[in-house]
From TrEMBL:
Residues 1-31 form the signal peptide. Residues 42-260 form the Solute-binding protein family 3/N-terminal domain. This is Transporter substrate-binding domain-containing protein. Gene3D superfamilies: Periplasmic binding protein-like II. Pfam families: SBP_bac_3 (PF00497). Keywords: Signal.
Protein backbone atom coordinates (compact mmCIF):
# COMPACT_ATOMS: atom_id res chain seq x y z
CA UNK A 1 0.00 0.00 0.00
CA UNK A 2 1.31 3.44 -0.89
CA UNK A 3 1.46 5.94 1.96
CA UNK A 4 0.74 9.56 1.16
CA UNK A 5 1.07 12.87 2.92
CA UNK A 6 -2.68 13.35 2.80
CA UNK A 7 -3.27 12.34 6.39
CA UNK A 8 -5.98 14.70 7.56
CA UNK A 9 -9.57 13.63 7.30
CA UNK A 10 -11.12 16.94 8.28
CA UNK A 11 -14.38 17.11 10.13
CA UNK A 12 -16.22 19.65 12.25
CA UNK A 13 -17.30 18.63 15.73
CA UNK A 14 -20.77 20.00 16.29
CA UNK A 15 -22.42 19.50 19.65
CA UNK A 16 -22.05 16.37 21.78
CA UNK A 17 -21.13 13.25 19.82
CA UNK A 18 -21.65 9.72 21.11
CA UNK A 19 -18.65 7.57 20.23
CA UNK A 20 -18.56 3.92 21.29
CA UNK A 21 -20.87 4.72 24.17
CA UNK A 22 -18.79 7.73 25.25
CA UNK A 23 -20.34 11.19 25.47
CA UNK A 24 -17.88 13.62 23.89
CA UNK A 25 -18.35 17.32 24.51
CA UNK A 26 -17.68 19.99 21.88
CA UNK A 27 -14.16 21.37 21.74
CA UNK A 28 -13.00 24.81 20.71
CA UNK A 29 -10.52 25.12 17.88
CA UNK A 30 -7.00 25.83 19.10
CA UNK A 31 -3.59 26.57 17.69
CA UNK A 32 -1.55 23.67 16.36
CA UNK A 33 0.06 21.80 19.26
CA UNK A 34 3.34 20.81 17.62
CA UNK A 35 5.24 23.82 19.01
CA UNK A 36 4.10 23.08 22.57
CA UNK A 37 5.09 19.42 22.23
CA UNK A 38 8.54 20.37 20.95
CA UNK A 39 8.96 22.82 23.81
CA UNK A 40 8.18 20.02 26.28
CA UNK A 41 10.47 17.68 24.37
CA UNK A 42 8.13 14.74 24.95
CA UNK A 43 5.47 13.11 22.79
CA UNK A 44 2.87 11.40 24.98
CA UNK A 45 1.20 8.42 23.32
CA UNK A 46 -1.60 6.18 24.62
CA UNK A 47 -2.57 2.55 24.11
CA UNK A 48 -4.42 -0.12 26.07
CA UNK A 49 -1.44 -2.34 26.89
CA UNK A 50 -3.87 -5.23 26.39
CA UNK A 51 -3.29 -6.10 22.73
CA UNK A 52 -0.29 -8.40 22.20
CA UNK A 53 1.85 -8.41 20.13
CA UNK A 54 0.90 -4.85 19.19
CA UNK A 55 1.05 -3.49 22.73
CA UNK A 56 1.33 -5.28 26.07
CA UNK A 57 3.10 -5.18 29.43
CA UNK A 58 6.05 -7.58 29.71
CA UNK A 59 7.47 -9.33 32.78
CA UNK A 60 9.62 -6.28 33.52
CA UNK A 61 6.46 -4.15 33.66
CA UNK A 62 7.43 -2.39 30.43
CA UNK A 63 4.94 -1.55 27.69
CA UNK A 64 6.32 -3.19 24.56
CA UNK A 65 5.18 -4.33 21.14
CA UNK A 66 4.69 -3.07 17.61
CA UNK A 67 2.76 0.07 18.60
CA UNK A 68 5.24 1.34 21.24
CA UNK A 69 8.11 0.68 18.83
CA UNK A 70 6.40 2.65 16.06
CA UNK A 71 5.47 5.51 18.41
CA UNK A 72 8.96 5.66 19.91
CA UNK A 73 10.59 5.79 16.48
CA UNK A 74 8.24 8.54 15.32
CA UNK A 75 9.05 10.59 18.42
CA UNK A 76 12.78 10.03 17.88
CA UNK A 77 12.58 11.27 14.30
CA UNK A 78 10.74 14.36 15.53
CA UNK A 79 13.56 15.04 18.00
CA UNK A 80 11.42 14.06 20.98
CA UNK A 81 11.40 11.62 23.86
CA UNK A 82 8.35 9.39 24.19
CA UNK A 83 6.01 8.86 27.13
CA UNK A 84 3.74 5.80 26.93
CA UNK A 85 0.41 5.90 28.73
CA UNK A 86 -1.81 2.84 29.18
CA UNK A 87 -5.52 3.37 29.59
CA UNK A 88 -8.79 1.48 29.12
CA UNK A 89 -9.68 1.23 25.44
CA UNK A 90 -13.31 2.28 25.86
CA UNK A 91 -12.19 5.68 27.21
CA UNK A 92 -9.11 6.25 25.10
CA UNK A 93 -10.66 8.77 22.69
CA UNK A 94 -12.16 10.70 25.61
CA UNK A 95 -8.70 10.88 27.17
CA UNK A 96 -7.24 12.18 23.92
CA UNK A 97 -9.86 14.91 23.66
CA UNK A 98 -9.28 15.79 27.33
CA UNK A 99 -5.58 16.29 26.47
CA UNK A 100 -4.32 13.54 28.76
CA UNK A 101 -1.88 12.56 25.98
CA UNK A 102 -0.91 13.84 22.54
CA UNK A 103 -1.78 10.85 20.38
CA UNK A 104 -3.11 7.31 20.40
CA UNK A 105 -0.71 4.80 18.88
CA UNK A 106 -2.71 1.73 19.79
CA UNK A 107 -3.92 -0.11 16.68
CA UNK A 108 -7.00 2.09 16.30
CA UNK A 109 -9.09 1.31 13.22
CA UNK A 110 -9.83 4.32 11.06
CA UNK A 111 -13.61 4.62 10.90
CA UNK A 112 -16.05 7.26 9.73
CA UNK A 113 -17.53 7.54 13.21
CA UNK A 114 -14.17 8.20 14.88
CA UNK A 115 -13.25 10.61 12.11
CA UNK A 116 -16.08 12.86 13.27
CA UNK A 117 -14.16 13.80 16.43
CA UNK A 118 -10.46 13.11 15.77
CA UNK A 119 -7.94 13.08 12.93
CA UNK A 120 -5.67 10.26 11.83
CA UNK A 121 -2.07 9.94 10.71
CA UNK A 122 -1.36 6.92 8.54
CA UNK A 123 -2.64 4.23 8.25
CA UNK A 124 0.46 2.48 9.57
CA UNK A 125 -0.83 -1.06 9.05
CA UNK A 126 -3.83 -2.94 7.70
CA UNK A 127 -5.91 -5.75 9.14
CA UNK A 128 -9.50 -7.03 8.98
CA UNK A 129 -12.27 -8.34 11.22
CA UNK A 130 -12.08 -12.06 11.95
CA UNK A 131 -14.13 -14.56 13.94
CA UNK A 132 -12.53 -17.37 15.91
CA UNK A 133 -13.80 -20.42 17.80
CA UNK A 134 -12.05 -23.24 19.61
CA UNK A 135 -10.83 -25.96 17.25
CA UNK A 136 -13.54 -28.58 16.81
CA UNK A 137 -16.38 -26.24 17.75
CA UNK A 138 -19.83 -26.90 16.30
CA UNK A 139 -19.89 -23.20 15.37
CA UNK A 140 -18.50 -23.13 11.84
CA UNK A 141 -20.31 -20.27 10.10
CA UNK A 142 -21.22 -16.63 10.67
CA UNK A 143 -24.91 -17.57 10.49
CA UNK A 144 -24.56 -19.57 13.73
CA UNK A 145 -23.31 -16.60 15.76
CA UNK A 146 -26.89 -15.45 16.37
CA UNK A 147 -27.43 -18.51 18.57
CA UNK A 148 -24.25 -18.45 20.68
CA UNK A 149 -22.31 -16.26 23.10
CA UNK A 150 -19.84 -13.94 21.37
CA UNK A 151 -16.87 -12.25 23.06
CA UNK A 152 -15.59 -8.81 22.07
CA UNK A 153 -13.31 -6.15 23.53
CA UNK A 154 -15.15 -3.22 25.10
CA UNK A 155 -14.97 -0.09 22.97
CA UNK A 156 -13.60 -1.72 19.83
CA UNK A 157 -15.29 -1.41 16.45
CA UNK A 158 -15.97 -5.15 16.67
CA UNK A 159 -18.17 -4.59 19.71
CA UNK A 160 -20.38 -2.20 17.77
CA UNK A 161 -20.47 -4.57 14.79
CA UNK A 162 -21.56 -7.47 17.02
CA UNK A 163 -24.25 -5.33 18.65
CA UNK A 164 -25.50 -4.24 15.23
CA UNK A 165 -25.91 -7.92 14.31
CA UNK A 166 -27.99 -8.46 17.45
CA UNK A 167 -25.55 -11.00 18.93
CA UNK A 168 -25.52 -12.03 22.58
CA UNK A 169 -22.16 -10.62 23.66
CA UNK A 170 -19.78 -10.48 26.59
CA UNK A 171 -17.31 -7.62 26.69
CA UNK A 172 -13.72 -7.76 27.97
CA UNK A 173 -10.82 -5.41 28.67
CA UNK A 174 -8.45 -6.71 26.03
CA UNK A 175 -7.27 -9.56 23.86
CA UNK A 176 -5.59 -11.71 26.57
CA UNK A 177 -8.84 -11.87 28.56
CA UNK A 178 -10.83 -12.44 25.37
CA UNK A 179 -8.68 -15.42 24.37
CA UNK A 180 -8.75 -16.87 27.88
CA UNK A 181 -12.55 -16.68 28.04
CA UNK A 182 -12.81 -18.45 24.67
CA UNK A 183 -10.36 -21.12 25.79
CA UNK A 184 -12.31 -21.63 29.02
CA UNK A 185 -15.60 -21.96 27.15
CA UNK A 186 -17.29 -18.90 28.61
CA UNK A 187 -17.90 -17.63 25.09
CA UNK A 188 -18.41 -19.69 21.94
CA UNK A 189 -16.70 -17.31 19.52
CA UNK A 190 -14.72 -14.08 19.57
CA UNK A 191 -14.51 -11.19 17.12
CA UNK A 192 -11.18 -9.42 16.79
CA UNK A 193 -8.66 -8.11 14.27
CA UNK A 194 -7.20 -11.09 12.48
CA UNK A 195 -3.45 -10.55 12.91
CA UNK A 196 -2.91 -10.82 16.69
CA UNK A 197 -5.12 -13.90 17.07
CA UNK A 198 -3.49 -15.64 14.12
CA UNK A 199 -0.08 -14.93 15.64
CA UNK A 200 -1.21 -16.43 18.95
CA UNK A 201 -2.36 -19.51 17.05
CA UNK A 202 0.93 -19.72 15.15
CA UNK A 203 2.86 -19.54 18.41
CA UNK A 204 0.91 -22.53 19.70
CA UNK A 205 -0.72 -20.58 22.52
CA UNK A 206 -4.27 -21.51 21.51
CA UNK A 207 -5.89 -24.20 19.38
CA UNK A 208 -8.45 -22.16 17.45
CA UNK A 209 -10.30 -22.16 14.15
CA UNK A 210 -11.15 -19.10 12.06
CA UNK A 211 -14.66 -18.80 10.61
CA UNK A 212 -14.90 -17.43 7.10
CA UNK A 213 -16.44 -13.94 7.13
CA UNK A 214 -17.09 -12.89 3.52
CA UNK A 215 -18.35 -9.45 4.55
CA UNK A 216 -15.12 -8.47 6.34
CA UNK A 217 -13.01 -5.93 4.48
CA UNK A 218 -9.45 -4.72 5.12
CA UNK A 219 -9.25 -1.67 7.37
CA UNK A 220 -6.35 0.60 8.22
CA UNK A 221 -5.05 1.29 11.71
CA UNK A 222 -4.11 4.92 12.24
CA UNK A 223 -2.49 7.20 14.80
CA UNK A 224 -5.19 9.34 16.41
CA UNK A 225 -4.59 13.01 17.20
CA UNK A 226 -6.85 15.91 18.09
CA UNK A 227 -8.35 17.95 15.28
CA UNK A 228 -6.90 21.25 14.02
CA UNK A 229 -3.28 20.06 14.19
CA UNK A 230 -2.02 20.01 10.59
CA UNK A 231 1.61 20.71 11.57
CA UNK A 232 1.65 17.89 14.11
CA UNK A 233 -0.01 15.53 11.63
CA UNK A 234 2.48 16.43 8.90
CA UNK A 235 5.49 15.99 11.21
CA UNK A 236 4.27 12.59 12.37
CA UNK A 237 3.48 11.49 8.82
CA UNK A 238 6.94 12.64 7.66
CA UNK A 239 8.49 10.46 10.35
CA UNK A 240 6.28 7.51 9.43
CA UNK A 241 7.01 7.88 5.72
CA UNK A 242 10.73 7.98 6.45
CA UNK A 243 10.46 4.74 8.43
CA UNK A 244 8.63 3.12 5.54
CA UNK A 245 11.26 4.20 3.03
CA UNK A 246 14.47 3.34 4.89
CA UNK A 247 13.49 -0.12 6.14
CA UNK A 248 13.00 0.75 9.81
CA UNK A 249 9.28 0.04 9.67
CA UNK A 250 9.84 -3.38 8.13
CA UNK A 251 12.44 -4.25 10.78
CA UNK A 252 9.96 -3.34 13.55
CA UNK A 253 7.17 -5.30 11.85
CA UNK A 254 9.35 -8.38 11.43
CA UNK A 255 10.40 -8.24 15.08
CA UNK A 256 6.90 -8.00 16.52
CA UNK A 257 4.47 -9.50 13.98
CA UNK A 258 6.72 -11.58 11.75
CA UNK A 259 6.43 -9.63 8.49
CA UNK A 260 5.19 -6.61 6.56
CA UNK A 261 1.59 -5.66 7.42
CA UNK A 262 1.22 -2.49 5.37
Amino acid sequence: MKYSMNVLRRSVLMGGVALMGLGVAPMKASADELADIKERGVLSIAMSGQYPPFNFVNEQNEVVGFDPAIGTEIAKRMGLEVEIVTTAWDGIIGGLLAKKYDAVVGSMSITEERDKVIDFVGPYYNTKRAIFTKAGSVVTSVDQLADVKVGVTLGETHEQWARDQGYDINTYKGLPELLLELDNGRVDAIVNDSIPVMLAMKAGQYDLAMIDDPAAEPIGAGIAIRENNPDLAAAMQDALDGMMEDGTYLAIAEEWVGGDIR
